[in-house]
Amino acid sequence: MKARWLIKIHHIHAILVGLLLLSGLSLFIQPVRTFFNEWKIPLVAIHTWIALFYIIIVLLSLKKAIKYTFKKPTLKKFNVHFILGLFLAWSLSGAIMYFQAHFPVPVRNTAVTIHDTVTWIAIPWLLIHSIGHTLKLEIPWPLWWKRHAKKPEWVQENRLQRRDFIKSLSLITIMIFIGGWLKWLTPMLHASNETNRRRGYFRIYNVTNDYPRYENNDWSLTIDGLVEEKKVLTIQQMRQLKWNTIIDDFHCVTGWSVKGVELTGVYIRDLFEAHDIKPKDKYITAYSGDGVYFDTFTLSQLVDEEAMLVFELDGAPLKKAQGYPCRLYHPTMYGYKSVKWIERLTITDERDYGYWQQNGDYDLDGYL
């Protein structure tokens, strides 16, 4: 009876791990992630719910699984311990990513790196394990490893005790964190003297698999809605205004951050003053040039809280995938409020939900 129960759990476990890997890879691979966005499928929420169900299944079956494998050959014990190691790394790093607002930037970035690394470790294991069971392939393991057979003397002499296991686990954990920390530090170590040194790296997220391309300075910003006079401002007019440079930390709601980013552009309050823009109401909707993405703000959030239109990042024009030639930036909000390829600001008398509030249950204000 116990064996049948464990077989069922094993199959459920395999299905859940497969779904986690598929949804996780879909989030990691930009075109696939964007495909789900275009169809308004909440992939992040799906991935999170699968993870929660997986954690519950593992915790419920943990005691019986360990008891069942206690007298089993070394191979089965190793398999269980290996899965538990992946489970712990996934769960802890995933929890930090989900509650990332409560952790400092180095911890967040390390958690993201660990989560990715564990996934890439799990993929070959899952393929080998699945193909081996499906085709009934026998890997030529030593008999003492896969069956109850006499172990070689060198194995018996170096038999691990509980304290050895704890030491090994601690060492592995330390090495994972060191690896994650070094990856987080890499962009700063490889920066040239002329480049703004920063920690972390950007991950590009779009909601469409294509993005607008502006050639020959054909970009313009329209300010319309409840204003005294509609304005259409060209890139040349933007260059005539006072540009400001700030150094700030860029934070994504998915857990990663980039420290010390140099952002250059025009404060929205300066733009409104210079062109005598007088809103007649207190809400603003910012529209992206991709024709899909938008987000909403109160007028005070953009005018009084030093929001800016950014044209340069780290002393160079924005890259196309980063929102060239212009994106919105608010210093105390998450990156999803930073509308890329911004083309229009519309003043309204009511505040609507933005793209991610409608499709991903994100916070309307998005404060850090």
For the record, the CATH class of the largest domain is: Mainly Alpha
Order of helices and strands: HHHHHHHHEEHEEHEEHEEEEH
Mean pLDDT across the residues is 85
End-to-end C-alpha gap: 51 Å
Number of strands: 10
Note the total helix count.
12
Radius of gyration, rounded?
26 Å
Overall 3D shape: elongated
Helix content: 40-55%
Provide the descriptors you would attach to this structure in a database record:
single chain, five-stranded mixed β-sheet, 16% strand, alpha+beta, Fumarate Reductase Cytochrome B subunit, 12 helices, five-stranded antiparallel β-sheet
Structural commentary:
The protein is an alpha+beta fold and 368 residues long. It folds into 2 domains: 2-189, Up-down Bundle (Fumarate Reductase Cytochrome B subunit), CATH 1.20.950; 220-359, Alpha-Beta Complex (Sulfite Oxidase, Chain A, domain 2). Helices cover 48% and strands 16% of the residues. It has helices at residues 2-28, 30-38, 43-69, 74-98, 105-135, 143-146, 153-157, 162-189, 235-239, 268-274, 299-303, 355-359; strands at 220-225, 231-234, 244-251, 257-267, 283-288, 294-298, 308-313, 316-317, 327-329, 342-348. It has a 5-stranded mixed sheet. Strands 3, 4, 7, 8 and 9 form a 5-stranded antiparallel sheet that branches. The chain is elongated, with a radius of gyration of 26 Å.
